[in-house]
Amino acid sequence: MTFQIDHLGIAVKSLSAAKSIYEKLGLSVSAEETVEHEKVRLVMVPVGESRFELLEPTSEDSTIAKFIAKRGEGLHHVCMKVPDLPAAVERLKKDGVRLVSEEIKVGAGGHQYVFVHPTSTGGVLLELVQE
Hints:
This protein is α+β, with helices and mostly antiparallel strands. It contains three helices and eight strands, in the order E-H-E-E-E-H-E-H-E-E-E.
């Protein structure tokens, strides 16, 4: 497997309002899923070989709620699929790259993921994921 864009994470106030534009375009939208530890409800919208991940906060103290309060709705992160997530994390840590958390977590769809801090990526929150 090679590196590829997995999805673009988009912070929204309302999943039902946000997903309607994609449904009107004729795209399929996944069933809603909640990731309790991230305090978000989400849907995935497949677009070609990638997806849009629409993220609605389930709590005022969630990362997504804080993002929306500070910046408004919009692009939250870019997610890249990597062939070996533990090896990628170790390589980044060894090279002094700042991670949001050094712990690999399990998120939507059972995927393992970690976030690279925007200070290390030119201002973009980068999620690395492995199925």
